[in-house]
Amino acid sequence: MTDSIDARLNALGIRLPEAAAPVAAYVPAVEAGGLLYISGQLPFREDGSLIVGLLGADYDVEHGREAAERCAVMLLAQMKKALGSLDRVERVVKLGAFVASERHFTDQPKVANGASELMEKVFGEAGRHARSAVGVPVLPLGAAVEVDAIVAVRAG
């Protein structure tokens, strides 16, 4: 039988990449106490290139939204790898969005909407979540955005 979330991804035209390997001394995801904690994910395009830049200086909000959405796609890939099926996701509890931005840029919440809106498209009401969106001066590898997540999961 087809995984229903996989069918929704297909209908949305979203192809999950291979889950990214850690770039330092950590694991991509930890399941504990009915929650899946997912390490921050970077915005890789479908071609594997990284979306980089400083919002408000080099790039605009739309560039950031695209980056946040690509982070969300990688979060989905990590969820699927850790859980075996996205149908085990009971609810997206919280997203944390880190936006590389110059000091006068204040649209971090608009940038983070790229990730938040994708979670709602994929999981429906269960994709609505609490969130933080903060500006930072620099992110790993020069990424424009990084997003981490906490997800409630069904027993496997």
Describe the protein's topology:
Elements: H1 4-12, E1 29-32, E2 35-41, H2 61-83, E3 89-100, H3 108-123, E4 130-136, E5 145-153
Parallel strand pairs: 3-4
Antiparallel strand pairs: 1-2, 2-5, 3-5
Helix pairs in contact: 2-3
Which CATH class?
A: Alpha Beta
Largest sheet: 5 strands, mixed
The helical percent reads: 25-40%
Major sheet strand order:
1-2-5-3-4
Order of helices and strands: HEEHEHEE
Low-confidence sequence ranges = none
- Radius of gyration based on Cα positions: 15 Å
The pLDDT mean sits at 95
Second rung of CATH, namely the architecture: 2-Layer Sandwich
First and last CA, distance: 17 Å
Instruction: Identify the overall geometry.
Output: globular
Structurally, the number of domains stands at 1
CATH superfamily: RutC-like
Q: According to CATH, what is the topology?
A: 60s Ribosomal Protein L30, Chain: A
- How many DSSP H or I helices? 3
**Structural class determined from secondary elements:** alpha+beta
Indicate the proportion of strand residues: 25-35%
How many E-type strands? 5
Kindly describe this structure.
The chain has three helices and five strands. With about 160 residues, the chain is of the alpha+beta class. The chain has a single domain, classed as RutC-like (60s Ribosomal Protein L30, Chain: A). The chain has a five-stranded mixed sheet. The longest helix is centred in the middle third of the chain and has 23 residues, at about 60-85.
What's a quick, concise take on this entry?
The chain has 156 residues and is α+β, with helices and mostly antiparallel strands. It has a single domain, classed as 2-Layer Sandwich (60s Ribosomal Protein L30, Chain: A), CATH 3.30.1330.
